[in-house]
């Protein structure tokens, strides 16, 4: 439940509670007092009307009414009107005091075949109402009820809003010292905020682990060729070593240096491929793309004894891609296929197919494949299915980042050849 709904319900409950308590206090305590007070006012006003009626009967008319009507107590607070039966106004006495609440008394008398209606009206002013005992009781009761409801609201707000925020603040402070927060069970905004914070900390921790793994991987992969370089360099210092052996060692040193450079380049690409802004797309046809891939890899794969085929049924369709980065994708996938081929007959096949608004690219080999329970992990940074290695490269993780940067998808599956098929889905441009 959202905080907005909670607060709305709290306000509604408090209003209802206030009305129920006030009504209950009125019914149980004040009703009799109110009735008694109003009855007293009504009786006094009835006595004044009876006095006026008796005077009119005694005088057999309303002559000199002003002289004796002023003898009525509190006449200055009473409105008096005398009318004939045809609504002719015979006399009117008005007070300048006004009120929304009035007490009224009337009487009819017959004199000399004339009917007179006497009406007296007593306005109850705010200043007078305040002095009535039951009004004071209502005000006191409302103040007490209001204070109780106020503290009730404060308690609810503290436990439902303030306290969870304090816990969240404490979790943030504790996270600075390595204490991970726990998830909240509430479904309001504070609960969502805390759970989002927990997810953020989990991602940060995972990212930190990945960074440590990357550092360990780079360190391991650089240390091995670097150790060889240092060893061969030390041996070259021997002046008695034949020149032919020195030249061979220098070639080995150069080869190891190239390995280190390729490793650093791969790491740079991994960092750069995560930035979608670094992708610069240009339109290219499927036919042209397949031609570029064929020219880049056919000779090399043929020399290694690997059959290489490219098939397409959608040459005319256009893809909007960054060719330099997509070359890296094909290079990494084909390179992985070459490393995992242990059969005498080796084959890599690339297929381009059109599917609604997408182009499906499959790169399949007849290598050793991947266990089904591990196939979803091969695109993770530094993951390897080769148990002989403690750390792994970043090739397929780079491929995933590049394809996602193009708005596409990449996944893997084992094929009927016993090898692995990498599927790439890219949105076509026409």
Structural write-up:
This protein is an alpha+beta fold and 430 residues long. The chain has 3 domains: 3-144, no CATH class; 180-273, Helix Hairpins; 279-427, 2-Layer Sandwich (Heat Shock Protein 90). The protein has helices at residues 3-59, 65-69, 126-131, 133-175, 189-236, 243-273, 286-303, 323-339, 395-405, and strands at residues 79-84, 89-93, 101-111, 114-124, 282-285, 306-312, 318-321, 346-355, 358-365, 409-414, 420-427. The strands form 3 sheets. It has a 5-stranded mixed beta sheet with strand order 6-8-9-11-10. A 4-stranded antiparallel beta sheet has the order 2-1-4-3. Strands 5-7 form a two-stranded antiparallel ribbon. The longest helix is centred in the N-terminal third of the chain and has 57 residues, at 3-59. The model is unreliable at 387-392 (pLDDT under 50). It is found in: Cell membrane. This is histidine kinase. It catalyses: ATP + protein L-histidine = ADP + protein N-phospho-L-histidine. It is an enzyme of class 2 (transferase).
Topology:
Layout: H1 3-59, H2 65-69, E1 79-84, E2 89-93, E3 101-111, E4 114-124, H3 126-131, H4 133-175, H5 189-236, H6 243-273, E5 282-285, H7 286-303, E6 306-312, E7 318-321, H8 323-339, E8 346-355, E9 358-365, H9 395-405, E10 409-414, E11 420-427
Parallel strand pairs: 6-8
Antiparallel strand pairs: 1-2, 1-4, 3-4, 5-7, 8-9, 9-11, 10-11
What best-fitting shape do the alpha-carbon axes yield? rod-shaped
Q: What is the count of helical runs?
A: 9
H-E string: HHEEEEHHHHEHEEHEEHEE
Helix content: 40-55%
**Largest β sheet strand count, sense and barrel closure:** 5 strands, mixed
In round numbers, the mean pLDDT is: 79
What CATH architecture label of the largest domain applies? 2-Layer Sandwich
Report low-confidence residues grouped into runs of 5 or more: 387-392
- Cα radius of gyration in angstroms: 49 Å
Oligomer: single chain
Number of E-state strands? 11
Tell me the name of the CATH class of the largest domain.
Alpha Beta
Give, in spatial order, the strands making up the sheet with the most strands. Answer: 6-8-9-11-10
- Termini separation: 46 Å
SS strand fraction = 15-25%
Query: CATH topology of the largest domain, what is it called?
Result: Heat Shock Protein 90
How many structural units, i.e. domains? 3
Class based on secondary structure composition and strand pairing:
alpha+beta
GO molecular function, one term: ATP binding
Subcellular location: Cell membrane
Enzyme class: transferase
Organism: Romboutsia ilealis
